[in-house]
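Example record used in the benchmark description.
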Amino acid sequence: MADTMLRWRGWRWAPVIASLLLGACSETAEDPAPTQVDPGPSLECQQLNPGTSPARLLTREQYNNTIEELLGDDSRPADAFPPENTVLGYGTNADAHHASPLLVEKFLSAAEGVAKRAMAKRDELLPCPAGDESVECATRFIREFGARAFRRPLEASEVAIFAKLFQSSQVPYGFDKAIDLVLQALLQSPQFLYRIDTTPAPTVETGAVRLGSYEIASRLSYSLWNSMPDDALFASAATDELQTAEAIESHARRMLDDPRAKRMSADFFRQWLNLGRLGSTVRENPADADLGTSWQQSVEKFLEHAMWDEGGGIERLFTSSRVYVDSSLAGLYGIKAPSTGFAAVDGDPSQRMGLLTQPGLLALFSHPDQSSPIQRGVFIREQVLCQKLQSPPPEVDQTPPDPDPDATTRERFAQHTEAPTCHSCHQRIDGLGFGLENFDHLGRYRAMEYDLPVDASGDIYEPLDKSIAGPYNGPVELAKKLAGSPQVYDCMATQWYRYTMGRVETEADVCSLDQVQRAFKKSGGDLKELVVALTLTDAFRFRPPGAQDK
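Model output (structure tokens):
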């Protein structure tokens, strides 16, 4: 028995070994400066260059969804996992999201709980007649369940390893416990926890390795659903059909019609906008302290409307006057409260227009007692225009000026940022943030502040898209400028690329990213077409040759 338990401890720590081999225990990564990708209209990409393809550890969202579809377990065990490290806001980044020792312990606890709940429905779990406790039944379970857990058929050596674990455990513990231990081991295996590309490189060097159909199936499912492949993807992978762009596109379009795609887009928007911060938003007035959840749900419902309702896309994202309110938000914004849940309300288009004027987003980029033109300007510059700003010098005091009834927020912040060391960056920030000064720290529209008229004029300073450079007046003019800007189109495509590919773009991504950006513009800014375009890139369908091929 002691020898059996020693071997079981080895299984328990298999993810630790894998994480060390994969460099998975490193600390949080600093946000790198993205490569400015501007290939120009004459770019010709004749040689395949898919960029890096690191092993990707399942995120908490992906783990929860996979467990639910694999075993029907909707307990969301990964909610207890530590948050992913992020790069440029994305927890999907493979260079930052690693299996730390704490996370490995959580994997163990989750596997034990999931296995216990699965064994409570033993007859549904096993592919054998009730009462069959043979080695053949266990081996069949390993092959069939393992193929779904690993998202590919198991190799003979893998089946043998798990079968040996079953046989060594059955004698001291009995059939059910042995299956329980095998299930725990499968759920802690690197093959389950990581998405690993294993198709060998061809003997003739081409600079790129075409992914196998099972790998493509996993990329599709985790990119479009944040979960494991469904039966249709497994069937296409089994017949090796996912080797053509046509087959991949067909599945991508089918998958976008599934409700699980909305779950994926919600996860993207949540990370792009850092909406999770709303749940812990602090406001000066205690009566406003519990609005964070309502604000977040309101923004998420708007984003779903912008992307998924008929005719949705980037123009609606930036120009729709719709807002969503529940009973908590309705009174705050002077709107009739719905009887239950959230109601869609079309606001005044001369005041509210698109994402930038969503109450929850305005509240997110504010201070507890006042609006924050700096936070709002930084958000637009970095997340909407994809122009990375330098961090302020350490000697700069970033404390916001106190509210003053004799001055508007704009006047106080203008004084706060007049120092010569601040001027260069604040030219790029303030001219965007001041355009949203018609909204206070709770996202309420205002024409006056402390009985002083609000000045919401602004200037877009040094954008890459020169057509939007220069002055504008108020949030509506700002939204209209951004909605029609090729730079905003390219930035949106870049943000999706970072989220989907799990990395920051480099020179190796120039051609794939250019392909996505061009397809997105050609579609007129259709966000669903953007997702399809991502699945057709070299970066999605190929990987570079690497050490795993040696």
